[in-house]
Amino acid sequence: MAIHDPRPPTFPISRGGAGGGLYFTVASLLVALLAVGYVLIGMPGLRDDMASAPGRGVTAEQPAAPADQR
């Protein structure tokens, strides 16, 4: 014969840390937005075609390659 328990079952309820997923999602979207903006700007600091004189603030571009290379 089965034993009948008249009390309803109880389940543990987590009250803390409910917004953790929201913070992670917002932070992920912010990082993705910053990465896309960095790429759209043209990745400053990674250009090899610019040379600068130290301490003078003078920049010089490298000469372009001739159009008819043989």
Strand order of the largest sheet: 1-2
Shape: rod-shaped
The end-to-end distance, rounded to whole angstroms, is 97 Å
- Uncertain residue segments: none
Question: Residue-averaged pLDDT, rounded?
Answer: 76
Number of strands: 2
| Number of DSSP helical runs | 1
Rg: 31 Å
Please state the structural category.
alpha+beta
SS strand fraction: 5-15%
Residue share in helices?
25-40%
What's the helix-strand series? HEE
Main pleated sheet: 2 strands, antiparallel
Structure report:
This protein has 70 residues and is an alpha+beta fold. It has a two-stranded antiparallel sheet with strand order 1-2. The radius of gyration is 31 Å and the shape is rod-shaped.
Q: Nutshell version of this structure?
A:
The chain has one helix spanning 20-41, and strands at 50-52, 59-61. By secondary structure, it is α+β, with helices and mostly antiparallel strands. Strand 1 and strand 2 form a beta hairpin.
Task: Give me some keywords for this one.
single chain, alpha+beta, two-stranded antiparallel ribbon
SSE diagram, text form:
Layout lengths: L19 H22 L8 E3 L6 E3 L9
Antiparallel strand pairs: 1-2
